[in-house]
């Protein structure tokens, strides 16, 4: 298992990126005359002082108004889309750094134009250095380019793009977390005759979620203390105040408890980076929301099933049951909980099947998905699909009439009965 340590700058990069642009604008605005003199000498712009001032003032006032209007529209669009897909999904997909660049360029243009005005007739010399005017126009052209790109980015709020983005993030997490080895045997936990003497490490802070852990550091802690560490919580599990976060076998040497706690990464909410199950959970939420009587949009549920079909194929080729870590000598040092193949199958399909029980379209797509998976999956993975398919058929008394396999759910695979 390979886990990625959470990084605050990666999660909240919008403000630092915008501040970097503003700092650059301030530097150019305050030092523009000096830098221009170094590059172009004392070459003055052919614009008269009043014309240059009018242009720079128009850039400053126009960019501030444009920034306010544009971002107001973006926030309204995000809010409306979030009401349909869910705020968690919108926040997750809003991790793009492009909004930080856009805000930085627009604000930087405004700040630079204001500071550039002070260089007009500076030092008793009439006019303004041509470099100052050129940089102002470059900021303006950059703002126009970013504006066009931002308008195009609004397409990312389309349902197809949203689901594809979520699929890509979940697939990336699955490929990063799990190694490729289909059909690996379940390793389970190291057995011990008596756990009554084991030490229990409990969480003493506010309720959090386990979003990952440092495997190498935990193994080093276990080797240094000559013990075994069992993490009773899986990634994505809630960690309540007082809950056990680690169970340590009797140690031969003192255990570095602060290092062990620091190796457990806790956060205020789940993240996909180390938790592919959360990506699947979000996709399923979109589907069951679409299948609710208030929305009644089975086509969106079909699109979600298309993405889940691909994710299950990816997960089927990974080693999901490897829940133990050994040290260099072959001794078990770390045991942790996690989702197995059957867990992923149940998570991806059970609720959509239940909420879409009255939708002929959804039932046909699920039947097609199950048939396809049974045909292409490795032998070790087929049993879970077969069991779910059996449950799917027996749970629906009208299965024969509504669940003929059909990848589009349109009903063209078999006549209506």
Distance between the termini: 49 Å
Number of helices: 15
The overall pLDDT average reads 81
Strand order of the largest sheet: 1-5-3-8-7
Largest sheet: 5 strands, mixed
Order of helices and strands: HHHHHHHEEHEEEHEHHEEHHHH
Rg computed from alpha carbons, rounded to a whole number of angstroms: 29 Å
Total individual domains: 2
Low-confidence stretches: 183-193, 413-417
The structure class reads alpha+beta
Helix content: 55-70%
Number of strands: 8
Beta fraction of the residues?
5-15%
Description:
- With 417 residues, the protein is an alpha+beta fold.
- It folds into two domains: 8-157, no CATH class; 184-417, no CATH class.
- The protein is 58% helix and 8% strand.
- The protein has 15 helices and eight strands.
- It has helices spanning 8-11, 14-40, 49-85, 87-93, 98-117, 130-153, 159-177, 215-225, 257-262, 276-290, 298-316, 341-355, 360-376, 379-395, 399-402, and strands at 199-202, 208-213, 229-231, 238-239, 244-248, 264-267, 324-326, 332-336.
- The chain has a five-stranded mixed sheet, with helices on one face.
- Strand 7 (324-326) and strand 8 (332-336) form a beta hairpin.
- The longest helix has 37 residues, at 49-85.
